[in-house]
Amino acid sequence: MSEATPMTKIQVPLWLTSTAVVVALATGGVVGYAITSPQQSSDPNINKIVSTYEAINDGYYQKPDAKKLVNGAINGMVSSLDDPYSNLLQTDDKTSLDTTISASFGGIGAVLKNDQSKLLIDSVTADGAAKKAGLKPNDELVAINGKSTTGWSTSEAVAKIRGKVGTTVSVTIKRAGVNQTFKVKRQKITTETVAGTMDTKDKALGIIQISSFSEPTTDQLKATIKQLRKAGAKRFILDLRGNPGGLMPQALSIASMFLKNGQKIMTVEPRNGDSVTYRAGKDYDDGFKVTEPTAVLIDGQSASAAEITAAALNENRNILLIGEKSFGKGTVQNVNSLNETSELKLTVAKWLTPKGQWINHKGLMPTDKVPYPAAAKITMVTKASLKLGDTGTDVRSLQQMLAALKFNPGAVNGDYNETTASAVKAFQATNQLPTTGSADAQTLQILTTKLANQLHQDDPMINKARTVLSKESN
């Protein structure tokens, strides 16, 4: 998940998953601690740290790296907490957090794809920097800032293209056999965190997927709901599956939209000080309310802000939670800016649902348990291609995908044998691909897309939600 909007990190409330951070507001400010100079402390433990630093810095037989000493001390202190949510974020990790917060990045407005080991520009946005510079769909990307992209994945290329908004990246492409180099100025690209569609089976049902709770999410959700209402939506499915969380203000605003003013959204309990309860109201939703019948989808990757929202809707409005047990992230962290390249995230409190439940390590139990089909749990193929004679987990995944799509690979045993090769050939023939029997990158990509489309078209959780909402409306 450009630079994030300038901010002082200790002022930013954030809810994320196990691999990120959660920040909570307290009355009149942020739960947290001011970082003071250790030399001014009368705490003997702090003085012990300072004395150790000075002894190493002054007496070690080689000149130590002062930055490494300090970061080592911080990491050591944080590690002693044995808390996966508290740690020191530096450089790339800090940038990743900033990008998550803002749901934006510095890019050029182009989508890349990997086509038979070539990196191609799949599309360019109408008002994007790439189009303005002269880049076009199907241009082959051959170098970035003078470095060849041969052998690169799309992720590697994207990482090199992205950067600080306003800076320039050199992009070399091949078009009609001729290399051309373009200087492209990076612009702010905002990520869409909300997607809405009208159900194909129920013309009055709008399906809304929220991928994260970031700065633009509330506004994007409001716009999506308005569009779906215009299209005839009379009821909604709020899909929070795979949503790792996001900004606390967004969670409060979104939950508030579905609740009556005054209803409790959540309570935060710090170690010291009074608990803080947040309630629905105009301050959070600006008077925008969603009163239509709604169902919420959750799974094992629905965490933090997603769990806050799901619990608030369920415990206040009896909105059904459909799917699988959620992740279970019930602690609160804040983020303290240490300098321009590092920040400390630290667990400072726990949060409770409107009914006082602490879901940490427990998760939210769905009111209607609907498991994913077996095909949805197939492990992704990690190799670029597979062929006759190969063995291992990637081959097993290939066989499982073929079987799910009704192409018989024989025994699902991780052995790329003649039967598996025949199934691959049959799939390739059906999809107008060269019938080699080897699963090259293009075959694997189309296979994955076909399976995803099948799962999307016959989603058991959406099917259940559709049935429940239809009964409620009748």
Automatic annotation (TrEMBL):
SMART domains, per the entry: PDZ, TSPc
Entry keyword Transmembrane: yes
Keywords: Hydrolase, Membrane, Protease, Serine protease, Transmembrane, Transmembrane helix
Transmembrane segments: 12-35
Top-level taxon: Bacteria
An example molecular function term from Gene Ontology annotations: endopeptidase activity
InterPro entries in UniProt: ClpP/crotonase-like_dom_sf, CtpA/B_N, PDZ, PDZ_sf, Peptidase_S41A, Peptidoglycan-bd-like, PGBD-like_sf, PGBDSf
A single GO BP: proteolysis
Domain PDZ span(s) in chain numbering: 106-162
One GO cellular component term noted in the UniProt record for this chain: outer membrane-bounded periplasmic space
One Pfam family hit: PG_binding_1
Keyword DNA-binding annotated: no
Family: Belongs to the peptidase S41A family.
Protein name: Carboxyl-terminal protease
